User: Which sequence fits this backbone?
């Protein structure tokens, strides 16, 4: 880090360890900041180290840029091993704004077929993004913003027939980002050498969702990934199967009528945190770009507007993109402003509209 005095942004279980470690290297700890309003005390004469903060980091980095801060540093659990910091990532806020998190759709279909899948992957036909389209999208995105965490997903991303070619492209355009494959894990032990090498060479890790079938074979998955020296975690950060991370419930927020208060719906939903990229377009969450599949399969009549998703190439700069993603879209009025419906996780490949609505 450029300046010897440093502030930590974020309150995590690693704070004390990180402070000790950096102090032993001669850095001087000045304090911890956990609220947006406290950022005003920071200036360009200290190093700003952000710990594990993908969701709020977009807002924080915008505020820091307004204050004239040129560079921020990010440290994640993967970069800490046995009390040693292996890597701190550096992001220049002056070149491009930083987004905390982006999801990129690689395939529509899935081998698990969870009932009510919010990406409709349990009923979608087979589809995978072409390598050229992926390259176009990621290149255009990289011209606009830096991203802390890119999650490549589907459906099940391991079903993409050219995944080993996709990963180096992602890494080339986002050399400093965390890149995760979001997987149900079932195909991990079947990965071929070419894919394994691509995952390792491009410093990609697995974010594995622990569904019942995944849980049953979790030991095998852990053994395989450890043997191949591939980074992974289950759920939100555990390296072993853990019953508390088992996904027992799904939820939906969709209603068939566009009658809800979009602002209130946004306060309830999880989607607002997850900007979604698919085939040249970007939206605030996955629904507007995927709803066509529900319409096709279940004869529903959800309608999107030109405000619901935009071509990546239509943004002049990253700030414009971030502002677009910060506001709720027309489609949000399809989401309940009252109560999400939660239901027991199970599999189903039936075209039942009722599985997807509150
Ligand atoms: S594992 Fe389930 S929730 Fe995830 S994409 Fe497949 S069907 Fe959807
Ligand atoms: S459409 Fe809007 S309200 Fe609905 S999940 Fe997406 S961001 Fe949330």
Assistant:
């Amino acid at each position: 880090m450029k300046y010897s005095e440093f502030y930590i942004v974020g309150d995590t279980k690693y704070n004390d360890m990180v402070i000790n470690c950096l102090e032993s290297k001669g850095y001087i700890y000045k304090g911890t900041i956990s609220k947006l309003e406290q950022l005003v005390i920071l200036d360009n004469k200290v190093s700003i180290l952000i710990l594990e903060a993908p969701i709020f980091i977009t807002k924080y980095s915008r505020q820091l840029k307004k204050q004239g801060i040129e560079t921020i540093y990010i440290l994640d659990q993967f970069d800490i091993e046995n009390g040693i910091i292996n890597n701190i990532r550096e992001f220049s806020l002056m070149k491009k704004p930083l987004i905390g998190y982006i999801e990129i759709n690689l395939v529509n279909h899935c081998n698990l077929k969870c009932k009510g899948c919010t990406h409709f992957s349990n009923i979608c036909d087979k589809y995978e993004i072409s390598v050229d389209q992926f390259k176009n999208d990621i290149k255009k995105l990289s011209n606009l913003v830096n991203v802390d965490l890119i999650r490549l997903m589907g459906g099940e991303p391991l079903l993409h027939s050219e995944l080993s070619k996709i990963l180096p492209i992602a890494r080339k355009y986002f050399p400093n980002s965390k890149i995760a494959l979001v997987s149900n894990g079932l195909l991990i032990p079947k990965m071929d050498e070419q894919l394994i090498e691509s995952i390792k060479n491009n410093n990609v890790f697995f974010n594995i969702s622990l569904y019942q079938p995944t849980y049953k074979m979790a030991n095998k998955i852990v053994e395989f990934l450890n043997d191949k020296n591939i980074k992974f975690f289950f759920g939100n950060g555990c390296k072993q199967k853990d019953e508390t991370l088992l996904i027992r419930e799904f939820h939906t927020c969709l209603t068939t009528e566009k009658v809800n208060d979009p602002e209130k719906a946004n306060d309830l939903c999880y989607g607002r945190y997850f900007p979604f990229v698919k085939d040249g377009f970007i939206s605030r969450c996955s629904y507007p770009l995927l709803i066509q599949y529900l319409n096709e399969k279940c004869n529903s009549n959800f309608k999107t507007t030109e405000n619901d998703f935009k071509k990546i190439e239509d943004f002049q700069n990253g700030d414009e993109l971030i502002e677009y993603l910060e506001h709720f879209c027309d489609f949000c009025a399809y989401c309940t402003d009252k109560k999400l419906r939660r239901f027991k996780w199970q599999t189903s490949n039936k075209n039942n509209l009722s599985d997807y609505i509150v």
In short: DSSP finds ten helices and 17 strands in the chain. The first strand starts at residue 5 and ends at 9. The domain at 5-92 is CATH 3.40.50 (Rossmann fold). The pocket of iron/sulfur cluster (ligand 1) is lined by residues 110, 112-114, 117, 119, 121-122, 154-156, 184 (CB under 6 Å).
